[in-house]
Every structure is written in structure tokens, then in C-alpha cells.
Amino acid sequence: MAGSKLQAPRGTFDVLPADAVRRDRLVGLSAHVLEGAGYAHTETPIFEDTALFARGVGESTDIVQKEMFTFEDKGGRSLTLRPENTAGICRAYIEHGMHKLPQPVKLWSWGPFFRHEAPQAGRYRQFTQLDVEALGSDDPSLDAELIVLLAQILERSGVKARLLLSSLGNADTRAEYGEELRAHLGAHESELSDEVRSRIDTNPLRAFDSDHPGTRSAMEEAPRLIDRLDREDIDHFGEVRALLEQAGCAYELDPTLVRGLDYYTRTVFEFESDDLGAQRGVGGGGRYDGLVEKLGGPATPGVGWAAGVERVLLASQREVEGAYFPMRAYVVVPKAEERPLAFRLVQALRDAGALAEMEQAGRSVKGQMKQADRVDATHVVIAGDSLEVRDMQTGEQHEVASVEDAVRAVTQ
Ligand code: HAM
């Protein structure tokens, strides 16, 4: 329509420079933490065959039933904008024969994901996930390692979150338990919400997720999957818990924890923050030992998590720690003649690994100090008649004899 006002589509947002700084820092910090644990960066396409998600995420999930952006390409193929990453990573693992590599294959990615949900604070139709997956081993140390890594990233991003933990056991246990739960739901059918009732056959576990008062009270006496786990799964879960305890990673057992995706087996977890509104989940995941096989690959265990970048930043109570530039210098230039010295300083600071900027907009010295604050400099170097270095945290300022000494004062 000519003349009508164009806006970003509902549930989407623009990332402007002010937000980009925090986002980039979070991704930088995460890359640093994850690569330090041997996870390698990977990218997969933003759209995939619709069948991948239908089979991978599960036909009966909200994601597949209601939330996918699905379209036909010009060749009549059904494609879907990815609502999550695990299915795509498993597809890539199979397609590239990664089972032949030394196991486990540890991968991390980040990028845009799409779900057609009702937008609200912290819930968007295009959002960004940081995703980590470890394929090819069912060692409980991987479950624990992944949980600790997410706890560290959240902590260093200024997020206070509670870790909820449970185990869903294996496919056989779940199938038997499903029958038991169906019987329980059947006996309480009249108390249940329409939605839960319509899913008794396809996805009875989701009844634990319902806010409906009748359903909630019917679920209070429902049998718990955690009480039905077999010996091996109990031992596996026990080891995950012991490793978390040893690492000082506090958790709450939540036997009603049901994740909105069908592929989970054994360990499941979620980090929740009270500093978010209704959307309390900042990140979550679990083990998915049957997924690769279900998608046509060799039997391969896997475990992983995803965190919502926007939710982490919404829940963050302080600056996200910088990963690569703990030292950030701003070079103040009182007189234009000192520009070459300032320029030399900036190069030397950058060579030494610090983030360095100099005044480039003709501000007064006072204006330059304000700018140093705005760019969150840890140090100011004043390139005037004398060379001075100011520590912005302590306010302490002292003269240095040379460019080299200034660099040393900033980077040590
Ligand atoms: P998920 O719990 O569906 O798990 O999503 C992970 C995180 O993505 C959530 O905790 C939340 O922070 C963020 N998120 C999800 N939907 C939205 C939305 N509409 N708007 C903003 N943020 C959102 C998964 O996606 C699994 N693939 C995680 C996983 C990886 N499990 C194993 N490996």
C-alpha cells in the first residue's frame, strides 16, 4: 500500500548499536568459555526440510503443531524456518559422517530461530539462541560439563538463575510410564483442560506443564516418571548429580520438569530467572540419545542445551563480562598537535591485546572523559604535554615516561 507506514514484523526487533554491544559481548564470552572446553563453532542453514522438525522435534509438540514458519519453495518443497537447532545439528552430523570422527563431537552455534508464538516481553517470533551439542557419548560427565558451562556463562553475564534438574529415563521406561499416566489422566478426564484431554494419547507428559487449575490438581497425585527409572538410568542420573555437586553447581530436583520437545531421554534441565516476567526460562536442554537414529543415522547418544540471547540480556543485572578485551583504553587528546602520539599509543595498545580508541570528534577534555565513561574504558591515557594513565575504577592517575610504559600500565 503506497504511503502506509512500514514496520518490523510483529514479534521481531531491530538490533541497534547500543544493544549490539551487549549481544556481541555475550556471544564473545560464550565462544571463549565453550572453545575453552573443546566445543567447535558450527553453522547450519536457517531453513531446513519441514520433515526434519516434524520427525526431530515431534509431531505432537506445540512447536510443530502451531509455531513453525513453513513455506513452499518454487520447486514445491516444504521448508521451515528453524525453530530450534538440535535437529539441524543431528542432520549435519549424519550428513557429514561425523560418527567417524573421534567422539564425542562437541559443537556450538548461535543465530536466529523462529517460532510463531504470541509476542510478549522475552518472547519473540525471531529470537537468537546460543546452542551447544555433544554427540557420540553417553558419559554423564558430558551432561554435567554442559550444565556447568551454561551456569558459568549465565554467572559471567550477570544472570541469577535457578537450575531445575530431572531425568526422563529411556524410551522403554517412558513408553511404560506413558501407559500408566494415560490411565491416570483417563480416570481424571473430566477435570482436565480441553488441550490436555486432546493430547492424552499423543503427549500425556505435557499435562505436567499445564496452568489449568483442574489439570494441576489432577496432576498432583499423578505417578512420577522419576520413580519409574530403571537401574542404569538411576545410576546415570546419580553420576550427573554427584559431578554437579562436586563442581559446586546448586540445583533443585524437579520431577515435573517437562521440556517442550519430544526428543529428550535421561537428563533434562532448565535455568529459570525471577528477573524475567512470565518467560522465566533463560536456557535449557538435556540428553537425546535416540534422536540421531530417529533421523536416519547410526545409534548415537547426544546431549546439549540452548539459551535465549535476548532472555539472558533481559535477566542480566550487570554488565556482561567482556571475553576478549578485559582492558579497554580511551586515549584523551587535549591538543590536536598530540594526535600522532595518541595514534601511536592506540596502535601499541591494540598490539598488546587491549581494546583502544582515541578521541576523534574534537571534544573538550571534559567531553573526552565523558566519552571514555560511555565506552566503558577501564583506563584513560592522556596524551598531552606529559603522558598520564588513569585507572577508571580506582580513579588513580599517574605519569608514565613512555608509550611502552603506558601500554604496560594498561595491560598489567
Ligand atoms: P527450548 O527450551 O525450546 O530448547 O529453547 C531454549 C531457549 O531459547 C529458551 O530457554 C529461551 O531462552 C529461548 N527461547 C525459546 N523460544 C523463545 C522465544 N519465542 N523468544 C525468545 N526466546 C526464546 C531448545 O530449543 C532445545 N533445542 C535446546 C537443546 C539443545 N536441547 C538439547 N540441545
CATH topology of the largest domain: BirA Bifunctional Protein, domain 2
Q: Radius of gyration over alpha carbons?
A: 26 Å
Text of the CATH class of the largest domain: Alpha Beta
Mean pLDDT across all residues, rounded?
A: 93
Describe the protein's architecture and organization.
With 412 residues, the chain is an alpha+beta fold. It folds into three domains: 17-169 and 229-315, Bira Bifunctional Protein, Domain 2 (BirA Bifunctional Protein, domain 2), CATH 3.30.930; 171-227, no CATH class; 328-411, 3-Layer(aba) Sandwich (Rossmann fold), CATH 3.40.50. The protein is built from 14 helices and 16 strands. The protein has helices spanning 17-35, 50-57, 62-67, 86-95, 140-156, 171-187, 194-198, 213-220, 231-246, 291-294, 309-315, 339-351, 365-374, 403-411; strands spanning 40-41, 47-49, 70-72, 78-81, 105-114, 126-135, 162-167, 252-253, 265-272, 281-287, 302-308, 328-332, 355-358, 379-383, 387-391, 397-400. The strands form three sheets. It has an eight-stranded mixed β-sheet with strand order 1-5-6-11-10-9-7-8, with helices on both faces. It has a five-stranded mixed β-sheet with strand order 13-12-14-15-16, sandwiched between helices. It has a three-stranded antiparallel β-sheet with strand order 2-4-3. The longest helix has 19 residues, at 17-35. It is elongated and about 85 Å long. The mean pLDDT is 93. Histidyl-adenosine monophosphate is lined by residues 84-86, 115, 117, 122-124, 127, 129, 131, 133, 260-261, 281-286, 288, 304-308, 310-311.
